[in-house]
C-alpha cells in the first residue's frame, strides 16, 4: 500500500484512532463510508469501536436498557490511521498508511 492509493479504504478495514474515544477505545472496524470528497476519496466513516482487550463500544443508554448491541460512531478520516485491509486475506497490516489530514480529505 502506498500513500498514492488511500481510496482503497473500504468496509471491514481496521483503523486505529489517533486519540482514544472516551479514554478507552482506540481501534475501529469500518462499517460504512458515509461521504466522499469531490475526488472520490473517503471523508467520513462509521465505525464499530473496540479497545485493547477486544471489548466493543456499546452506548451506555443501550446497556441501561439491556441492549448489548455494538454502537456506531462517526469519524472524519483525519482522525484515523489505516491499520489493516479486509480485502487482503488474513488482514495484512498497512505498512505505509496514508496521511488523511492533508487538505484533499477536508474538501
Report on the structure:
The chain is mainly beta and 107 residues long. The protein has one helix spanning 60-64, and strands at 14-21, 25-36, 42-50, 72-76, 80-84. The chain is built from one helix and five strands; from the N terminus they run E-E-E-H-E-E. It has a five-stranded antiparallel beta sheet, with no helix packed on it. Strand 1 (14-21) and strand 2 form a beta hairpin. The longest helix has 5 residues, at 60-64. The radius of gyration is 14 Å and the shape is globular.
Characteristics of this structure?
107 residues, mainly beta, 5-stranded antiparallel beta sheet, 1 helix, 5 strands, 5% helix, globular, disordered N terminus
Round the mean pLDDT to the nearest integer and report it: 84
Strand content: 35-45%
Tally of individual helices: 1
| Rg calculated over all Cα atoms | 14 Å
Sheet with most strands? 5 strands, antiparallel
Runs in which pLDDT lies below 50 for 5 or more consecutive residues are 1-7
List the domain count as a whole number: 1
Name the helix and strand elements from N-terminus to C-terminus, one letter apiece: EEEHEE
The class by helix and strand makeup works out as mainly beta
Distance between the termini: 23 Å
The strands making up the biggest β-sheet line up spatially as 4-3-2-1-5
Give the total of beta strands.
5
Q: Which geometry do the CA atoms define?
A: globular
Helix content: under 10%
Amino acid at each position: 500500500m502506498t500513500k498514492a492509493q488511500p481510496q482503497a479504504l473500504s468496509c471491514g478495514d481496521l483503523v486505529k484512532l489517533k486519540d482514544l474515544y472516551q479514554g478507552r477505545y482506540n481501534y475501529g472496524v469500518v462499517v460504512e463510508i458515509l461521504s466522499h470528497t469531490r475526488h472520490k476519496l473517503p471523508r467520513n466513516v462509521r465505525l464499530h469501536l473496540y479497545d485493547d482487550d477486544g471489548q466493543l463500544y456499546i452506548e451506555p443508554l443501550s446497556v441501561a436498557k439491556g441492549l448489548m448491541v455494538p454502537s456506531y460512531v462517526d469519524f472524519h478520516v483525519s482522525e484515523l490511521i489505516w491499520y489493516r485491509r479486509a480485502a487482503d486475506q488474513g488482514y495484512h497490516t498497512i505498512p505505509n498508511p496514508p496521511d488523511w489530514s492533508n487538505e484533499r480529505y477536508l474538501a
